[in-house]
Specification:
The chain is an alpha/beta fold and 228 residues long. Helices cover 32% and strands 28% of the residues. The protein has 7 helices and 10 strands. Strands 6-7-8-3-9-10 form a 6-stranded mixed beta sheet, with helices on both faces. It has a 4-stranded antiparallel beta sheet with strand order 2-1-4-5, with helices on one face. Strand 4 and strand 5 form a beta hairpin. Helix 5 runs parallel beside helix 6. The longest helix is centred in the C-terminal third of the chain and has 17 residues. It is globular, with a radius of gyration of 17 Å. The chain starts with a strand and ends with a strand. The model has no long low-confidence stretch (mean pLDDT 86).
C-alpha cells in the first residue's frame, strides 16, 4: 500500500471582498499517494493554476491546509517555506523559466547549488542521458529548441529528488511531437524514479496519460476518477 504524500484539506482562496469577492478555490479536499501521476483539468478560471501555486507554496491559501509528507506547509515560517520549495517540490512551468546566462548543466543543478549541497554527478549524468541532452550540456537556453528547454526544466525539477513534481501546462508551448516527448519523459520519471507528479493541463488527451484525473469547475472538484 502506497503512503499518502500530499493531503489537501478544505482549501479556500479568495480574491477581493464584498461585492467583488471571487472564490478561486472553494473548500477543495483531496489526497495523493506516493508515486501517483495526477492530472488536474478544468476550463480557464476553474482554479487549477491557483491550486498548483498553493501546492508549490508560491501562493498562500485564505484558509485550509496543505500537508506534504509530514510537513504542514503553511505553518512554516518564511525561511522554512523557502527551503521546503527548494527541497520538496519540483516545478515545471509552461515557459521553462531557465536562467539565460547559465548553460544546460548549470540550469539543471542550480537548485542543488542554491541549497549549498554537492551535485550527485552520477545521477546528473543519468538524467542528462535520459533527457537526450548529452550533446547540449554547454549550450545556453537561447541555443535550444522549445522542447529541449522544457527537457532542461524537467531535469532541474528532478535533480533534487523532490517529494512532488508540479507541472503547469508543461506542453502548452510546444508542438505535438515535442509534447509527446515531454509526456513520455514525465511518465518515465514517474515509473523509473517513482516520482509523484501533479500536472495541470487543458488537454484531455494528455490528461488521459495520467493515473487519475481531477476536474475543477468554479473552484470546486466536480470529478475525481482513476484512469488505470
Amino acid at each position: 500500500m502506497s503512503e499518502k504524500i500530499l493531503e489537501v484539506k478544505d482549501l479556500c482562496k479568495n480574491y477581493g471582498k464584498g461585492s467583488t469577492l471571487v472564490k478561486a478555490l472553494d473548500d477543495v479536499s483531496f489526497s495523493v499517494e506516493e508515486g501517483e501521476f495526477v492530472a488536474i483539468v478544468g476550463s480557464s478560471g476553474s482554479g487549477k493554476s491557483t491550486l498548483l501555486h498553493i501546492l508549490g507554496a508560491v501562493d498562500k491559501p485564505t484558509s485550509g491546509k496543505v500537508i506534504v509528507g509530514d510537513v504542514d506547509v503553511f505553518k512554516q515560517k518564511d525561511d522554512a517555506l523557502a527551503v521546503f520549495r527548494r527541497r520538496k517540490v519540483g516545478l515545471i512551468y509552461q515557459f521553462y523559466n531557465l536562467i539565460p546566462i547559465l548553460n544546460v548543466e548549470e540550469n539543471m543543478t542550480l537548485p542543488i547549488l542554491l541549497d549549498g549541497k554537492s551535485v550527485d554527478k552520477n545521477y546528473l549524468k543519468e538524467l542528462i542521458d535520459i533527457l537526450g541532452l548529452e550533446r547540449r550540456i554547454n549550450h545556453l537556453p537561447n541555443e535550444l529548441s522549445g522542447g529541449q528547454q522544457q527537457r532542461v526544466s524537467i531535469g532541474r525539477a528532478l535533480i533534487s529528488k523532490p517529494d512532488i513534481i508540479l507541472a503547469d501546462e508543461p506542453t502548452g508551448n510546444l508542438d505535438s511531437k515535442a509534447s509527446r516527448e515531454i509526456m513520455d519523459l514525465l511518465r518515465l520519471s514517474n515509473e523509473k524514479y517513482g516520482q509523484t507528479i501533479i500536472m495541470i493541463t487543458h488537454d484531455m488527451n494528455l490528461a488521459k496519460t495520467a493515473d487519475r484525473i481531477i476536474t475543477l469547475e468554479d473552484g470546486h472538484i466536480v470529478k475525481d476518477e482513476k484512469i488505470k
